[in-house]
Design goal:
With about 325 residues, the chain is of the alpha/beta class. The protein folds into 2 domains: about 170 residues, Rossmann fold, CATH 3.40.50.2000; about 140 residues, 3-Layer(aba) Sandwich (Rossmann fold). Helix content is about 40%, strand content about 15%. The chain is built from 13 helices and 12 strands. The protein has a 6-stranded parallel beta sheet with strand order 2-1-3-4-5-6, with helices on both faces. A 6-stranded parallel beta sheet has the order 9-8-7-10-11-12, with helices on both faces. α1 crosses α13, α3 crosses α5 and α7 crosses α11. It is globular and about 60 Å long.
């Protein structure tokens, strides 16, 4: 198939960690023999005007068999307005949360859903949220996670010494980093490393046994996981939890939120699910996760269904189904 990939997030020279989950699926589709043309944004700079650039790139593309867009709005909207080939779009989380929260987004998303031959949600939690907000999505939605490269995120031996905890993501309220730091402080041992940047950095600075690395290239994440015993991601809500899948593939136990996608793939032997607002529960969860085996082979096994090669196969089938009616006509 000739596939036009449209995404507002894609790794680039000045943002190598941007949309890595998009690029990994693209690579696997290429490995499966498909020809992919990119209409993407690979930088964080440019403000909202950069979406005009994305629209120009999408319109300038050659005639594909199918358009595969990531995020309902704006990428999906840009792809929908470009017309032409059948459209398949993946919803990742924020694009669904924005429905009803930002003026105009509901109408724009409704247009995308009506235009799309299929909508992919990265978790069943997200599917339910989308179908609740836009009932017309029902019957079009497939659930396929972004997947994890289990060859790249391989099992490693545990680090020696006290438990080392890692949190990957933005230092903001949704990622719940302050409550996590407060819970960690009550343990009295170990280290907690934050790999990410955000507005709450100053609240975390100067705390004992806490390291702030700032934004880290995605290529460095496997090394950071190998230096840790537990990945802690107690977000207020997590539509999927990409970092959790990557940690589990490395044989690391996880602390994860009960709200969102993690309950769909984190079994009890792989980690601990907690109420993200309960600091005492967070502290107990950190201790319980640290007490699980390391490497945790049950965590590794739980990611088998989310291997990126398997997910690319599923996405390929959805894209082919979208193309079939247009070829018949």
């Amino acid at each position: 198939m000739r596939i036009l990939l449209v995404s507002q997030m894609y790794p680039g020279p000045d943002a190598p960690d941007l949309g890595t989950f998009v690029a990994q699926v693209e690579r696997e589709l290429v490995e499966r023999g498909h020809e992919i043309e990119l209409a993407v944004l690979d930088t964080r700079s440019g403000g909202k005007l950069r979406y005009l650039t994305l629209a120009r790139r999408a319109r300038a593309a050659s005639r594909p068999d199918v358009v595969y867009a990531h995020f309902l709005v704006p990428s999906g909207l840009i792809a929908a307005l470009a017309g032409g080939a059948p459209l398949v779009v993946t919803a990742h989380g924020r694009d669904v949360r924005n429905i009803g929260a930002i003026r105009g987004i509901t109408a724009a998303t409704r247009l995308v859903v009506r235009r799309a031959a299929a909508v992919i949600c990265v978790s069943d939690y997200l599917r339910h949220e989308l179908e609740t907000k836009l009932p017309e999505a029902r019957g079009k939605v497939e659930v396929v996670s972004s997947g994890v490269d289990r060859e790249r995120f391989a099992v490693t031996d545990p680090p020696p010494g006290p438990p080392a905890f890692l949190c990957v993501g933005a230092l903001d309220e949704r990622k719940n980093v302050v409550r996590l730091a407060d819970a960690f402080a009550s343990l009295g041992e170990g280290t907690l490393t934050f790999a990410g940047e955000g507005p709450l950095r100053s609240t975390l600075e100067g705390r004992e046994r806490i390291r702030l690395l700032g934004r880290v290239p995605h290529d460095e994440i496997p090394r950071l996981l190998s230096e840790s015993r537990v990945l802690a991601q107690p977000s207020l809500v997590e539509p999927l939890g990409q970092a959790l899948l990557e940690a589990m593939a490395c044989g690391r136990s996880v602390l994860a939120t009960r709200i969102g996608g993690p309950p769909e793939f984190v079994p009890p032997e792989a980690g601990v699910l907690v109420d993200p607002l309960d600091v005492d529960a967070l502290a107990r969860g950190l201790a319980q996760a640290a007490a699980l085996p390391c490497p945790n082979l049950a965590a590794r096994e739980a990611t088998a269904e989310h291997d990126v090669r398997r997910q690319a196969e599923r996405i390929e089938a959805i894209l082919r189904s979208a193309v079939a009616p247009s070829r018949q006509s």
